Amino acid sequence: MESTRTIQLKIADPDFDLVETIKKYAQGMNYVSEIVFDNEKVIPARKLQPLVYNHLREELGLKSQVSCNIPRQVAGTYKTIVELAKQGLSYWQKIVYSPTSMILSYKRDYTITENSVSITTFSSGRKTYQLVNYPYAMQFFKSPWKFGASKVVKHDDGSYYFHLTVYQEIPDKRTEDASTFMGIDVGMNYLAVASTTDKKCKFFAGGEIKNQRNIYKNMRARLQSKGTSSAKSVMKQLAGKEKRLMKDVNHCISKAIVKFAAENNVSVIGFEDLTGIRTRTEHNISKKHRYHHSSWAFRQLQSFVAYKAKLAGIITEYVDPAFTSQTCFRCNHISRNNRHSLKFHCEICGYEVNADLNAASNLEHRTRDFRYTLESQGCQSITHTHEMI
Asked: Cas12f1-like TNB domain: from which residue to which, for each copy (predicted)?
């Protein structure tokens, strides 16, 4: 099983050569993108590369490895568009790439130390740039972590960062061998609620973060009404602050969740599969709460828990979330009338409990059932995680 992380390290001294290389990379991406778009269907990377390689190398002057990376990246983007289109979430369209990032292969395009990164530039060959590192990131420069394909990225504030991807192999664990499970319900009333097989539970509150985001929301509304260039600039800064705030909170909550799981000898954490959650549930959300529902980083929290859990030797699984908030954990009766805001009261058996805790208990039970399904079918579930810090 492979665990992958991405660490953002600021490039202290970006120069003309680095910026020009990213521009050339974007130029190559757009050339390949136009070819795929004009073809009116996805061209697999193995077929796309021979079509564009000579132009990328001879006409644009890109290096050989970059000329291989570009068609793979473009083909992957269009493949994603087609998959989303099947779900009614996108449509066939030309993708235009801005000069804000480029993918580099380890050793061929870059090498790195704790304090600097050497990058192959378009016009000046290999050049070394200083990195602004920080203590927590130092651990990823040591065994068992290894370096993988990484990115140079221009952030919204104009700074350039090296997004270093590292990975390590972790011994596989099987859901079929698990004995203790934990369901996690994520939401807006509580950031997360956990319930274990042993009926232990914990609430991870989100009241303060919700209040802070309400402040940002009101500030954004006032700035939007002004419509000036300075107001737009402040709105951009607010968006960055809010994003960083949510990321920091999700890191703290995910750490606490994994700690609680480890303390209770949990083998598998069960999450609800959030694929398409915004589309599925937006008609049930009042206009007053639509902002929080559409922008809340549910999936990010899940991914943070997943990679932290993996490092702790705990498996994560994703199960069907259908009716978990309406199903009575005690008698399995399903009804919209069972849930009343933060309270769950079964209209059949009278079971009464916090609504989010009831949902977490149902998720734990479904994860446990999933384990028995795997065992009976003789299948093994392997979860891969990827996270950016």
From this structure: 298-363
